[in-house]
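Lecture 7 notes: from sequence to structure.

We start with a single chain of 130 residues. Read the sequence below before looking at the structure.
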Amino acid sequence: MRLVPHPSEHEDATRPLDFDEAEALAESMRAFATGSRLRLLWALLDGELTVEQLAEQADLSQSAASHQLRLLRQGRLVRVRRSGRHAYYGLHDHHMVDLLAALRHHHEHVNPPAPMPLPDGATARAARSR
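Now the structure, written as tokens:
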């Protein structure tokens, strides 16, 4: 899957936001505001899944997963494909892969992991060796 849109695919992302576009973007970002929705989106990084599969992977009841998926569909973050009696959910498009990766990378950047604790006595030895 292509991770970066071709430059001719969109307008310049650094252009100023007008009021309406800012409000529309803010509304889209609200869909990322719960851990359960993020877990559903992350589960879809591997491809299409049914509600049952998504509920299991996201540790949600089927009812809760269905409700969250409805909100994600309304926000155009996921799409649904029906095949017979089954509904398969997937990320709306390749931009979602980029966006989820950027969210995680930003979080890791501003929240670096805590340093590993030194073994007992290592601090004293390190101080003496200076």
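The mean pLDDT is 87. Keep this in mind for problem set 3.
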